[in-house]
Amino acid sequence: MDRGFGEVELAQRLVPDGLLPVVELATRAGDIPTLAAVTAGAVLVLERDRAIHYLGVVIGGFSLLAGLKAAFALSRPPVELHLIETATTGFPSGHAMGATLVFGGLALTLRVGSRRARVAVAAVPIAAASLSRIVLGVHYLVDVAVGIGAAVGFLWAVERYAQGDPARSLAVGAGIGLLAVAAGVVFGPTPRTACAGAVCLDRDAAVVGAAALGAFVAWRVAERRSSPPDPAGRLFGATRTRTVSLVVLVPLLLGALLWVGSALLYVIVAAALGAAGLVVLAGRGATVLDRFVE
Fold first, then answer.
1. Cβ atoms 193, 200 nearer than 8 A
2. Tens of pLDDT along 219-254?
């Protein structure tokens, strides 16, 4: 489906060949490794509740992205316009939506400076990642615009509903994660479909769905094990951290053993473990910034 009006060709004519390495560098702002590193770093630095709320928002947003990609499954611009290789569908732009979720969500979560200033700073990597996708010929303008718009709408809705409550944001993430997995099954097979035995799932939807559930389960177990919280406001003590880790990780590891040889399951388990681990680490009490202040 052609959703363009010549904007890709125009952008490529306007950008000199000598600047293409800069454009390729700019697109890294929306790459998954970059966004994952920013998210993990923020979770480990922010105060406990805000850290886990932010993690829930990001995971929920990526679940929505995976569901939308699986549901629409629209193609990218013609391959002759591609200046880099791609493997997924084109609508909405994952780089645009992902960067908006991670950097925009962080701007809303932080309490440094004014909100307007934080949003202005966040707009730089968002714009860089988004516009680069058009120049590189892998997205139409509408893909980028819808990606940013969907992320902004999601951030607004979750902020209104959750109001910084980790339990609510993680519940939203888990719910959308399950819907994303279902979308991958209903609208599949997709270009990212992978199978574990007789079960075939959209790889991206399955991974974010597992991460959403891993984070939610870790939080729920932690709440039960730490009620009431200790005087320092920590969610986990050393013993509780070990308990939560075992409760969350052991069943997942046993499940992995039952599916030895399935690359898809390895990725799913890793996503669930990683998200649960971030919740465990974020819940241990004082943050890095707290220690500097002390």
1. yes
2. 887 776 555 544 444 444 444 444 444 444 554 554
Task: Choose among 224, 190, 5: nearest CA to 89.
Answer: 190
* CA dist., res. 202 & res. 257, Å (int): 21
Cα separation, 286 vs 171, whole angstroms: 24
Task: Write down how long the chain is.
Answer: 294
DSSP per residue, 111-164 = -SS-HHHHHHHHHHHHHHHHHHHHHTTS--HHHHHHHHHHHHHHHHHHHHHHTT
Cα–Cα distance for residue pair 178/226, rounded to 1 Å? 27
* CA dist., res. 81 & res. 191, Å (int): 20
- What is the reported pTM? 0.82
Q: For 247-286, b where at least 16 C-beta lie within 10 A, e where not — what string? A: bbbeebeeebeebeebebbebbbbbbbbbbbbbbebbbbe
